[in-house]
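Section 5.1 Outputs to date
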Amino acid sequence: MQTNVIPKFIVFEGIDGSGKSTQAKLLANRLLKTKVSHILKKEPGDTIIGEKIRKLLSDDSDMSPLTELFLFSAARKELVDKEIIPALENETLVILDRYIYSTIAYQGYGRNIDFEYIHHLNKIATSDLKPDIVFLLDINPEVSSSRIDSKNLDRIES
């Protein structure tokens, strides 16, 4: 007999302007209407330390690729330990806007950091916590660019 497994940890991924934040919010609103206990979080940020790290990452600076990776990993560790794991232990569904896959894309492919470093740091930062389901929103880059206000981009987004 097959049982239906209800996802408890849901991640939305995609490039900026792909609609991941919109879809995550729509799901959260639907869950709110159906009275399903959930939290909606984003990376980097959503903890006191995570928001401080987000500010550091957003500032226009001459940050090395490895420093950037370490900061993203530190923000992720805070979010996983202080928000995600406690919510899951409390049987609260978690919706997350970005996760380890963004690090693979942006720091691995974008900043040419060795994928073994990224994998190792992701494993530490997440305590090897994997989502139940990941939605990758694929979009034409020209369409995503047209959705973004390029005048208000911070260092991360640009």
